[in-house]
Amino acid sequence: MIVDLVVSLLLLASGILVLTAAAGLWRLQDFFLRLHAAALPNTLASWAVALASAIHLTAGTGRLALHHWVIVILLSITAPITTMLVARAALFRWRAHSADGTKPK
Fold first, then answer.
1. At what angle do helices 2-27 and 31-61 cross, to 10 degrees?
2. pLDDT 10s digit of each residue in the chain, 105 long?
3. Cα 31 to the center of its chain, rounded Å
4. Are 55 and 10 in contact (CB under 8 A)?
5. Does the pTM of the predicted model rise above 0.85?
6. Quick check: 17 and 45 in contact, CB under 8 A?
7. Are the C-beta atoms of residues 3 and 59 closer than 8 Å to each other?
8. Please, what sign has the CA dihedral across residues 49, 50, 53, 54?
9. Is the distance from CB of 36 to CB of 80 less than 8 angstroms?
């Protein structure tokens, strides 16, 4: 019962973090602010889900289940790179539009 409580609390925390990221995306006006509003809560939410999954499977099978961490580690490595590439593309687009006097969308 304690394991189920811990797993449910981690999943609930993950849901709250994702809702926080969604609220940041909804409330912020600028693309660059929106980009950062979703990055950290979504990463923390994925860590919470992976931890909940590892705890649940370890308690259920009796063996240490750590293969879910591969997904989270790859996500943690690739998410900042993706964020940086999207930000650079948006900055390039913003600079190109400001050079010719039009407003970027």
1. 170
2. 899 999 999 999 999 999 988 888 888 888 877 887 777 888 889 889 999 999 999 888 888 888 888 888 888 888 888 888 888 888 888 888 776 666 665
3. 16
4. yes
5. no
6. yes
7. yes
8. negative
9. no
